[in-house]
Write a structure and sequence with these properties.
The chain is about 75% helix and about 5% strand. The chain has 3 helices and 2 strands, in the order ββααα.
Amino acid sequence: MRLINGRSSTTASDRRAVGWAAAGLGAAGLVVGLAVAPVDAAQGEVYRLIYVHVPAAWTAYLSFFAVLLASINYLISGDARWDRAGQAAAEIGLGLTALTILVGMVWGRATW
């Protein structure tokens, strides 16, 4: 992050580095949740899906909260950047909601 006129500015390489770090940490969490976590005595192997289901649901909720904040800021300021930010957050939230439902169906079917 650089300071320009006393204000912080992120460059494309900074955003790219944060993106790669997030992707790496997400992949590591997925491996730990699906391969390293112990097997549940009652549910067996399918229990590990909960390590994907719950974080996906929470992140979807946070994405839609970001849509709310971006929409309010867009209505107040009229700045198109807020509109684009809300649209991007909505796309992420929609994908994660679909993942939550899909994993929940698989886990529920095997559990019930």
